[in-house]
Design brief:
This protein is an alpha/beta fold. It has a single domain, classed as Spore Coat Polysaccharide Biosynthesis Protein SpsA, Chain A (Alpha-Beta Complex), CATH 3.90.550. The protein contains ten helices and seven strands. It has a seven-stranded mixed beta sheet with strand order 3-2-1-4-6-5-7, with helices on both faces. Strand 1, helix 2 and strand 2 form a beta-alpha-beta unit. Helix 6 runs parallel beside helix 8 and helix 6 runs parallel beside helix 10. The termini are far apart.
Length: 228
């Protein structure tokens, strides 16, 4: 498989005009093809169109889950064999994409979930408040899916084409991270966790998940389950 031509990096973005240019530049410089999904931004996020990317835009803000699904739908139609989810705010390191997709290329997994807690040096980078919020998300995901992972709300993940065909996100907001796990289990998809290093800047922490966000996620998931 020619990895560079068969892989698409999907970058969901909402009002990320300050940083998205640098984020996308790093991906392009590494040779990756990039799909930016502008989720109804009201700032200059759209200026990223000056770069050689596929630019898709929601007319209104729908949520990160919806933006990822738009990107995945495009990737399927474009014939992608692997999709990598990559945050717009500069937290992720494109140099780790190679190790992230390795289990898929080796035929060991359909989905690879990035984790901040597999290596002590990565875990130490996570601020205490963030760590508490993430632990809440881990417990919620375990309760909802039966899958106990070390890190369930890391936006850095890789999906094979088989996974793309079986995962159709309905949760528009941050609850999509737990929904992905539900779809993995329901679809009989093979999954592994892979260590990832997250760089926390003042900017990314201001936009990051709050402890109360875990309760918001739980509420969204319960509503979705009761409405079925």
């Amino acid at each position: 498989m020619d990895v560079q031509s068969s892989l698409l990096v999907v970058v969901p973005a909402y009002n990320e005009g300050r940083v998205i240019g640098a984020t996308v530049d790093s991906l392009l410089s590494a040779g990756y093809r990039v799909v930016v999904v502008d989720d109804g931004s009201s700032d200059d996020t759209g200026d990223v169109r000056r770069l050689p990317v596929v630019y898709l835009r929601h007319p209104v803000n729908l949520g990160q889950g919806a933006a990822l699904q738009t990107g995945m739908t495009y990737a399927l139609r474009a014939g992608a064999q692997i999709v990598v989810h990559f945050d717009a705010d500069g937290q992720h390191d494109c140099r780790q994409i190679e190790s992230l997709i390795a289990p898929i290329l080796e035929g060991r997994a359909d989905v690879v979930l990035g984790s901040r807690f597999l290596r002590k040096e990565d875990a130490r980078r996570v601020p205490l408040k963030k760590r508490l919020a993430l632990k809440g998300g881990i417990l919620i995901s375990w309760a909802m899916t039966g899958m106990l992972l070390s890190d369930t709300h890391n936006g850095f993940r890789a999906l094979s084409r088989r996974a793309l065909e079986r995962i159709q996100l309905q949760e528009n907001g941050f609850a999509h991270a737990t929904e992905i796990l539900q779809r993995v289990r329901e679809g009989g998809l093979r999954y592994v966790e892979a260590p990832t290093t997250i760089t926390y800047t003042e900017y990314s922490q201001l936009k990051g998940q709050r402890i109360s966000g875990s309760l918001d996620i739980l509420f969204d998931l319960l509503v979705a389950r009761l409405s079925k």
